[in-house]
Amino acid sequence: MSTSTTSAPPPGTRQPPSAKAPPRRGRRSARTGWRRALRRDWQLYSLAVLPLLFFLVFRYVPMLGNVIAFRRFEPGGSIFGGEWVGLRYVEMFLSDPTFWQVFRNTLWLGGLTLVFCFPIPIVLALLLNEVRRRALKRFVQSVSYLPHFLSIVIVAGITMQMLATDGAINHVLGWFGHDPIRFIQEPEWFRTVYVGSEIWQTAGWGTILYLAALTTIDEDLYEAARIDGANRWQQIWHVTLPGIRPTMITLLILNIGTFMAVGFEKVLLLYNALTYPTADVISTYVYRTGVESNNFSYAAAIGLFEAIIGLVLITSANQLSRRTVGTSLW
User: pTM (2 decimals)?
Assistant: First the structure.
């Protein structure tokens, strides 16, 4: 019966080292690496302290106050409310016809703002990218950026002065024999006035990110497109737009997330009792209900409902974007 034997290595030769599994990095090594990076780049990390404190104090800590949406809050009592009432205030605003009116107004203003204010900066950036005269390009950029630096109060004041019964717009209409139009007092004009002022204020500033994204597109792609016989429109469609698509998708998701939070300050400054049927939105309704009527629990329930809708919208838009175009925020 034969037995297998293992031959010994010849004298003078070294055995190869046995293969060992690479050591696993545990929590301690990861923590050490994080501390090392913090000591090395502490100047950069220190820049994030103030933004983090801002979000902590003004965004996350106030979330604790949402508990009064389920408690009866009385001025002078506990800041977290008193008696537990459950979903009473939720049932109240769901059965309130005024709430559904302001909900529809919010959808209208948010939808019109998204449809018109989102693509216009893209179009403006594409047009500016085609301008070859640097002086003209800088002049157009400066003029279009300027409204962004104006206070919303100033923008609302300029809008109301221009659209007043004796304002510049009605003077121009009078030259053509048209009677003055009460833009500020007529409910059917409010949406046009709001969206128009929003475009004027934000279109130029919104082009900055798109112009920065345009600089990252490889010029060789345009050269290859010209060799293939593509004209300028075809180059924009097949090279430029795909090149800035990640930026477009990211900003679109962010805009969808703030879809329900229509500009509170501008609406509050532009609307009046005559334009409530089309101008009153959820944010202004919450302000009047909570601050002016002292019904804080009811206002907190409506605000929590608006926040939940915004969370659902931005999450759904992010998932849809990831599955369709492969670009998402997270």
Answer: 0.79
